[in-house]
Amino acid sequence: MRFVNVLRHAAPVILVFGTIVLATNAHAQSTLRVGKSVPEAFSFVPLDVGIKEGIFKKHGLNVESIAFTGDAKLQQAMTADGIDLGLGSGPGMAFIVKGSPVKAVAAMAGPPLLLAIVVRPDGPKTAAELKGKKVSVSTVGSLTQWLVTETSQRQGWGPKGIEILPMGAMAGQLAALKRGDIDGVIMDMANAFDLEKRGEGRILVRFGHLKDFIIHAIFATNKTIAERPGDVRRFLDGWFETIAFMRTHKAETVRIAQGVIDKDVDITSRTYDALMPMFSDDGHFSPQAMNVLTKSFVEMGTLPQQPNPQDLYTQAFLPKMITP
Asked: What is the pLDDT of residues 194-208, one digit of tens each?
């Protein structure tokens, strides 16, 4: 009888404890749907590394990775509540002005080290020789167009010193380069290194000098920010822990990245070396970089006027800024 009484008194405690355990387990299994704007870019490899190395799990998150075919598709998915967070381009913040129900929650990467202007092996030897030459870009109003225009401006030729040809898919651009229909093409570094290795191209211009820029950002839907702020914060904590891991674990990162960018170990290793410096360690938005970025919206013809940068992002979920 005494044992029964003990159980009777202990039952409420056991029930409360069980509820806490269940709640803790539910929290530990919280799922976030995270989209990549493109599937194969090294820029978004940290998501794969964080998942495969169990870093997001350690922060109580089950992260589902979903790939799209560009910023527009990524933003559409967030608008339709198909994903909770998105990894996209800095210029993708212009979609917020156009009504996309999201906010940028981290400046993921700064200088546009991802991209380069590539020419044929017998093409121009310096950027100064690009005057009047034809360089292909993906689409009108794209970041690639802006970078070629910026190259022309920096050479003192104005925005039209280089003839820009929007040509869509990379395969078509490379075929045009090989035929001699164009003089250069702007592409990602992994493909540029691969082209050089095969003796079919040569990297002419890189964009490391554009320090004040945000090439990539992490977005969260307004719904996720309002209803799951803790998960947003935990994701960013996991993201920046992943960046720190990648900086000190090249071999593991290259192994995972190979399966993402579909390049051999040599090209993937070179891509790692070239692109790791662009990643932010704390995600904070530089006012100077945001000013350059929002001005580019007008220069690219994306928006009629420069928006207020502070309307496009929040720093509420970021870790403390890392100072040198």
From this structure: 999 999 999 999 999
Quick check: 262 and 188 in contact, CB under 8 A?
Answer: no
* Reported pTM: 0.87
Domains of the chain from N-terminus onward: 10-111+213-311 (3.40.190.10), 115-206 (3.40.190.10)
Question: Mind listing the pLDDT tens digit for each residue in 164-177?
Answer: 999 988 899 999 99
**The predicted structure's pLDDT at residue 50:** 98
275 contacts 45 by C-beta, under 8 angstroms? no
Q: Quick one: angle between helices 250-261 and 229-248, nearest 10? A: 110
User: Can you tell me the distance from the alpha carbon of 125 to that of 271, in angstroms, rounded to the nearest whole number?
Assistant: 22
Mean pLDDT computed over 245-272? 97
Using a 10 angstrom Cβ sphere, with 0-12 exposed, 13-18 middle and 19 or more buried, the burial of residue 183 is buried
The SS3 assignment for 73 reads helix
Picking from 261, 282, 95, 258, the residue whose alpha carbon sits closest to that of residue 189 is 261
What is the full DSSP assignment across 165-195?
EE--SHHHHHHHHHHTS-SEEEEEHHHHHHH
